[in-house]
Each structure stands twice: as structure tokens, then as C-alpha cells.
Design brief:
Elements (H helix, E strand, L loop, with lengths): L5 E12 L2 E12 L3 E5 L6 H7 L11 E8 L2 E2 L7 H7 E4 L11 H10 L6 H14 L3 H4 L12 H13 L5 E5 L7 H14 L4 E5 L3 H7 L2 E6 L2 E7 H6 L4 H7 L5
Parallel strand pairs: 3-8, 3-9, 6-7, 7-8
Antiparallel strand pairs: 1-2, 1-4, 4-5, 9-10
Helix pairs in contact: 3-4, 3-6, 4-6, 6-7
Length: 255
């Protein structure tokens, strides 16, 4: 059952991520155990906004924000907050699968757990199996956990990255066009997985595929030229948008 508290919110957030489009004055709330889609044309600020939620934009020179990002009511940009610890609570999966190339399948999933503390082999085994099961990959790799992650297909690598992200039990998962480089079969598996994962996690997904947004999300937010134009329940956004720009984008008149 969904919790009553808010997991993640932004308050008048303005940001720039390196050379990428700034986002201006965005206030959004993502409630627990929901999938929240961010849509809009390329270069409109969706990924910039996504990266500010767990301070990934700080890894690029020139990244900055004003405003607040609140996780369970606390500002993630407060001086006492460790970015590394934050990224364990707000995990991220990128457009292109990013398995660690020198590690095995098992070690990829276990990597985040080993950063902070000594973990017993029994605990690692349990977490790796649980995470691979949750990412719908266990049955495909259980007999070759010591094999290189690079031997997996693109779709399998992306599910491995999801397993690695959920292993530390984050509260929020950020997905930046996670199916953009996958074939239709791989895309379907990821979409089915997103539906299952929202039982335990809050998910924010950037997608250029409006059909995908309609299939997997509970809420949809439309960005254009760095501004948040409209947000609301996905069914409403796709059938009765309040803003003319939103309707024009959804009906294919631009973008």
C-alpha cells in the first residue's frame, strides 16, 4: 500500500547542467509508489531536471541550482548531506546501459553495497538474488553470475543496471530514457518491470515516447524550453490537457 508521506518534491527549482538547457522555477511533487513521466521535445530540460534530483549535475563543470529539492521533507542540498549517500537513496539508470565492464554480473549488483561497509557473503548473496529477481533477470543469469556483465544483451544490461540501482534499497529511482537504445522486446520488459517496481519505489522517468508515458506512468509533466508547462494525472494530460502547448505536443504538431 502506498505511504501517505511525500517522498520527493522540488520547490521553485532553477538549474543549469553544463551546456544543457536550464530549467526555470519548477515546483513538482512525486508521491510514494507512483511512476511519474517527464515528456517534451529534446533539449527542453527534462534530463537536466532529473539530474538535479540526486545531484548528478554536480559531476559536470558549470552545474548549479537555486531553489530546493526535498526528500522526505529535507533539502538534499543542505551542507550536511553527502552526495554519495544521497545517491543510495535516489538511484539513477541512464539511457545507455552502464554496467561496470571489468566486473562480473554478481559484482555489478553488489558494487553499491560494498562501498559503505563490510558485508557478509551470505548477505551479498541474498541481496544479489533479490535484486536480480526484482529486475526480472535472475532466471536468465543465475547459472553464470561470475560471467562478465558485458556478455549480456543490451536489454539484459539495462535490467542489470536496474538491479544494481535497487540493491541498496533506494526510496526513489530516476530513469533517463531507459529504453531508448533497446529493441521492442527489451522495451516491453523494462516497461513491465517499471510497473512492478512501483510497488516498492517511487519512480521518475524521462521519455520521448508518449505511448510509453501513457502506458507506465501515473502522472505526466510536460516540459518545453526549460519551463514546466503542465502536470497532472496521465489520463488527464493525454485526453484533456489544460494548456494549448501540451495538446499541440501530444497530437504531434511539434516536437
Amino acid at each position: 500500500m502506498a505511504e501517505s508521506r511525500v517522498h520527493l518534491a522540488t520547490d521553485r527549482l532553477t538549474a543549469m547542467y553544463g551546456k544543457f538547457t536550464a530549467v526555470k522555477d519548477v515546483s513538482l511533487t512525486f508521491t510514494a509508489n507512483t511512476v511519474n513521466a517527464l515528456i517534451g521535445p529534446s533539449g527542453c530540460g527534462k534530463s537536466t531536471y532529473l539530474r538535479t534530483l540526486n545531484r548528478m549535475h554536480e559531476l559536470v563543470d558549470g552545474g548549479w541550482i537555486t531553489g530546493k529539492v526535498l526528500l522526505d521533507g529535507e533539502d538534499v542540498y543542505a551542507p550536511k548531506v553527502s552526495p554519495m549517500q544521497l545517491r543510495r537513496r535516489i538511484g539513477m539508470v541512464f539511457q545507455k546501459p552502464t554496467p561496470f565492464p571489468t566486473m562480473s554480473i554478481y559484482d555489478n549488483v553488489a558494487a553499491g553495497l560494498r562501498l559503505e561497509r563490510r558485508v557478509s557473503r551470505a548477505e551479498l548473496d541474498e541481496v544479489v538474488e533479490r535484486s536480480l529477481r526484482q529486475s526480472a533477470l535472475w532466471d536468465e543469469v543465475k547459472d553464470r553470475l561470475k560471467a562478465s556483465a558485458m556478455a549480456l544483451s543490451g536489454g539484459q544490461q539495462q535490467r542489470l543496471c536496474i538491479a544494481r540501482t535497487i540493491a541498496p534499497r533506494p526510496e526513489v529511482i530516476l530513469l533517463d530514457e531507459p529504453t531508448a537504445s533497446l529493441d521492442p522486446g527489451g522495451t516491453q520488459r523494462i516497461e513491465e518491470l517499471v510497473f512492478e517496481l512501483k510497488r516498492e519505489f517511487t519512480i521518475v522517468i524521462v521519455t520521448h515516447n508518449m505511448q510509453q508515458a501513457a502506458r507506465v506512468s501515473d502522472t505526466t509533466t510536460f516540459f518545453y524550453m526549460g519551463s514546466m508547462i503542465e502536470t497532472g494525472p496521465t489520463r488527464q494530460i493525454f485526453t484533456r490537457p489544460a494548456q494549448e502547448q501540451t495538446e499541440a505536443y501530444i497530437t504531434g504538431r511539434f516536437g
